Every structure is written in structure tokens, then in C-alpha cells.
Amino acid sequence: MSKHSYDVLIIGSGSAGFSAAEAAASLGARVCMIEKGKLGGECPNLACIPSKALLAAARAFRNVQETKTFGVACGAVAFDFEHIMRYRDRVVEKLTGGGVHGDRYEQLLKEMKVDVVYGNAVFEDDHNVLVAGDRFEAKAIVIATGSTDFIPDIPGLDQIHFWHWYDALSKKRQPKALAIIGGGPVACEIATFYATLGTRIVLIQRSARLLTREDEECARFAEDRLRAMGVEIVMNAVVSNIVDGRGGVYGVHVDVQGTKTMHAVEQVVVATGKRARLSGLEEAHVSVDPRGSIMITNEQQTNKKHLFAAGDVCGSGLMLTSTSHHEGFVAGYNAALFALNKRTPKMKQDERVVPRITFVEPEFASVGAVAGSIKEKHGSVLVGRAEIQNLGRAFADHAPNGIVKLAAHPKTRKVLGGAIIGPHAGEIIHEVALAIYANLTVDKLAEMIHAFPTYSEAVTNAASNLTLE
Fold first, then answer.
1. What average pLDDT values come out for the chain (469 residues) when binned by 10 residues?
2. Binding site residues for FAD, as ranges?
3. Residue 90 belongs to a domain with what CATH number?
4. Which residues are known binding-site members?
5. What does the alpha-carbon distance between residue 320 and residue 45 come to, in Å, rounded to a whole number?
6. Which residue segment(s) compose the domain that 396 sits in?
């Protein structure tokens, strides 16, 4: 067994791990990254980028179908599902560089002078990690192992070849009917893609509505849009069992408050959330919370002063690429300071303002607190509201309706949250995010001149149309 020593060891190469490597290397630390699969982790290889490529293809198909409104004739409109999946593959390959592990990412790490070792990492003790028979020792270690799917205990699920959510983004054959278990962003995006291309979808959600962390009015709007696309949404639902009916059909038995139904589908997708990936970390003896996520300080430090953690393994609740990237940089920076014994002030993570987007049609974006939680905390809340359909740009584009909502402190009038469902919501939300970050009032947003005609005008309209609730 050979032994290797470094200043900083990073386990995982996803958004958190890559960012940690960049931060640690920038301080002059000798850094080694351990990755058991493809560099870049889940986001570029399985999740964020593949799903957006597929949704872009679906959007193109939908837009071509609507050209008659503008006096543009396109003739018969069709799609090639296998070609769409090949487009998805090309996008991923272009971003990652292709190759076994991701040539582009390997080159970036080489330029940062970060060594890479491929294999499964297992802690021998809190200073040593074993990989493929070799021992790696470091003065500081960043744990960025990500998350694993939460698979619910449903009778019969283990007897069928169900799809994990990421399988739904890579299969070469389009199913005719699909049951999606879950009601979060991933489930809604998969439903949007397949429904646009004509697959019959039943979305099965345990709660009383979809997207439960988001503004209820906007979430209900998203539900209505999905239904308009033909998606059947079953709320307050418990999947009691799944039966393999043979012949390529599964029977999904659902109980809705005593009312039992059965849905015959060709495939079942499980999109019920994620849990921290702790396999191989046992001998590190880091503290975890009741949900099994590593507990950290705002400096990304665990209960062991030389061990840091970042990303999904910390279970921040959001599990977003953006938060993982931010946490990873803080963890890598502070790990390098510890390893190099530098007295430079430590970095602290700041996740007060984190925009989040669900890529349904139209996009649904939000940031900060929802109005209900603000009212619960302060007794009342200022709510600003505007509809997309009243904008000149929406008339010109023949755009679907949408909503912009702002939530502000009832006394200081500072912007505390916002939600947008409408065209380009994922871009517009950053104006609201900046307002929260800069402690601006709704009055400042109302005063700001916006270009005409744009969808961003709705932010000003909402800031000018306030009610106390």
C-alpha cells in the first residue's frame, strides 16, 4: 500500500468539490481530489444540464406548433425522440469535454495544479482516506460526497424496473404513459418535458399541492399550467402498491384519503427527494443531524476542526448547485487556511439570498421568504402583485399569463421575498434577489426606471401595487 500526503484532500468533484479545489489551490495548498465517477458530479452529467437541454428541445417543439398565431406556416410538425436524446448527449459532452471522466474538467484541474485520483474513498480514520488500496493523508479534508436518492418504501416497487429521476433524462425510447412519484421541482420538470412530447403523465404527490416550499398562489398557477398540458395530478396521495402487470404495463395503486384508484402506465419514475451520501465516512466520526446530514458551522467546519463539508452532504434543505458552489468555496478556502496554518480571517457562508428556479412552462422562480412565513413572524406582510398579461411585451409575444409577487416587511418596507411565474422568470428573479441582498425597500424598486417593453416591468408594477395582509 502506497501513501500520499497533501495539504488538502477533497472527496467529490461536484459543484462543492470543484469549488473547494479552486479555493484551496488559490491559496497555494497542495490539493488532491478523489472522484469515484465522472468529474463535475451530478449537475453537468445527470441533472441540471441534461434536463435543460431536453426542456429546450420540448420548448422548440411547442413554439413551432404555435407559429400560426404570428402568420408563420411551418407545415407538419414532428419530433424524433432519439435525436432529442442525442442532442442532450452532445450538450453534456460539449460542457464536460467527453472522455471517460470529463476531459475538460481534467484540464481545468491540471491548470489549477490539483491532482485527481479515481476510486471510492473510505475513511480509515479522521486523517487518512483509503482509495483502491492506497492511503491518502491530509492536514485538512473537505467532504463533498453529495447526495443519494431517497427511495420510498412502496410495496412492489422493488419488484419492477422503475426509473430513478435521472433515468428519465437519458432513455432513448419515449414511454406512452408515465407515473411520476413526487411533486417537487424535479418531478415537475420531468412531467413538463414528457407531456410536451405527448406522453400521458400522472403526477402523484403526497402533499395537498406541488412545490410545497414555494408561494402557494404561484405554485397553484404552475399546477394549472401542467394540467393544461394534459398532466393528471393526484394530490394527498399514497402509493399503496405497484403491480407488474406484465406485457409492459405497471399498475400503480393509489389511495387518496380512502378513495382507491389504479393507474396503468408503461414506466414509473421516482423523484421523491435526496439524502446526504454518508457511505465511507463512518470512521471520520463527524456529527450528523437527525436527517443524516453532516452538521457544520457557517465556516463549513464539522465537529472535527480539520474536517470540512459542503454541498448536498450537509443537507442545507435547498440542495442547489449554486449553494453547493458557494459552500464549497468557503470550505476549500478555510481548509487551506487550516492546513497552511495561515492567520488570514476565515470565510463565512452567506445563504440569506438564494434564487431558485423550477423550469416548468412558464418558468417559476423565487427568492427569499414566502409571504406566509413573513406574516407568521411579523403579524402582517406587505404583498405586491402584478400580472404578466397586462404587459405590452406579453401582448407582442402572445405570451401566457404569469404572476410577479413581492413580499416586504410591514414596517420597514424592505423586500424580503419574491416569486415569479412567467416568461424568463429565472432571469428576472435576480432583480428581486439583489433588492433583498442590498436591503432595498419596495419603494426603491417602484422608483426604478425599466426599459419598455420588457417582462421586468412587472417587478415595478408589483412594487407599486401593495396591500397589507
1. 94 98 98 98 97 98 93 91 98 97 98 98 97 97 97 96 97 97 98 99 98 96 97 98 90 97 98 96 97 96 98 86 96 98 93 94 96 92 97 96 97 98 98 97 97 98 96
2. 52, 145-147, 312
3. 3.50.50.60
4. 52, 145-147, 182-189, 273, 312
5. 15
6. 362-468
